[in-house]
Amino acid sequence: MRVLIVRYDEIAIKSNIVRTKLEKLLMQNIIVGAKKFNCNLEKIQRSQGRILLYGDIDCLKLSTSRIFGIRSISPSYEMTFSSIDDIVSEAEKMWKDKVTGRTFAVRTRRVGKHNFTSLQVSEKVGEKLANYGKVFLENPDISLHIEIRDNSAFFFDEILEGPGGLPLMAEGKALALISGGIDSPVAAWMIMKRGVAVDFMYCNITGPIGEKEVQEVVNRIGQWSIGYTSHFYSINCLKIAEVISSNISKRLQSIAFKRALYRIGQELAKKVNAGAIVTGESLAQVSSQTLSSLRSLSFGMDTLILRPLIGFDKLEIIKLAEKIGTFEASIKVPEYCSMFSHHPKTKVKLEDIKEIDKQLDDVINNVILQINSKMD
Ligand code: ATP
Ligand code: MG
User: Fold this and answer.
1) Are 227 and 315 in a shared domain?
2) Residues lining ligand 1, CB < 6 A?
3) Which amino acid positions bind ATP, per UniProt (predicted)?
4) DSSP string spanning 154-185?
5) Any idea what the CATH number is for the domain that residue 266 is in?
6) Model pTM score
7) For residue 159, is pLDDT > 70?
8) Is 87 found in the same domain as 77?
């Protein structure tokens, strides 16, 4: 019988109560993922630190590839056996074509009481398959795995990496500030990977231009939100941009926009019960992300601000964006940041932020009122 073995290292090392809770959550998310992909999932079963999935394995391979908490998967074949010879003959049938003309190694693991050791299984299977290919333990073309649990044996030769982390919804919810650029969707993904469900906030200062492209970025990252239906809050920030352009000195305009984002983000986060806001800031990437700017931006904020990309350089962020499937959509979002970039000040002081707040209070309060009235 074909079966998909699902491994989840990080959950496995938690205390009993936490582990049971997280395993249940992971199983729920796997079921939701299978439904989303229209996969036939006949049975899902926990078994000694693994989850076993029965049904349409090729489809389930895809549907599990975006489930946080999964360390790796292996499409496998499961059989029940009564002697070591059963295992050897099944292994021969399954793998003889695969090893023909290639080097291979057999690796066996065992749980339960048997009258043979793991090494004996590897040796016997290896001997048999040596009629077709060549044993090479150090660096084989193919690694053949056999896992024996009581009277069941699982055969697999593929270990596919999953995203790792913790199951979505294990850690509550956050609000990700999304510009549509390369960084912010990656930041949201990093937080989702730690089990946090994410809603998205976009502060639109360009009107209808670009909105569709940002929506597409949010859709792409939303494909990882299996187990939670993310909300996308697109907020009309045109008035904020106007006030910044006319009332704030040029060198402080970009920091003023960030401050507005933080303040609106904080209010919306409270409204939607998000325990933190997430940004795509990376230390010293641009002038508004120097140590002193980041520190000043947070003055008086009482919401946790998560910046998962803080220590990443641009190349690392781009690689991740490609991996998670947001890069292509992000580079289609029109650039607008030049709007506020007139030799920005890098050493922003508390007084600057106080002045910015004074200038922006009315317009920010209006935006917040609008958000509230829409949501009530
Ligand atoms: P990104 O950082 O997403 O690539 P960017 O580099 O143009 O876009 P920055 O100027 O670096 O944006 O802004 C820092 C962070 O502020 C972003 O990572 C994002 O979290 C948030 N942010 C910027 N612009 C917006 C916006 N219009 N709406 C919501 N959040 C935004
Ligand atoms: Mg950025």
Assistant:
1) yes
2) 177-179, 181-184, 201-203, 261, 279-281, 286, 337
3) 177-178, 258, 280, 289
4) EEE---EE---SB-TTTT-EEEEE--SSSHHH
5) 3.40.50.620
6) 0.93
7) yes
8) no
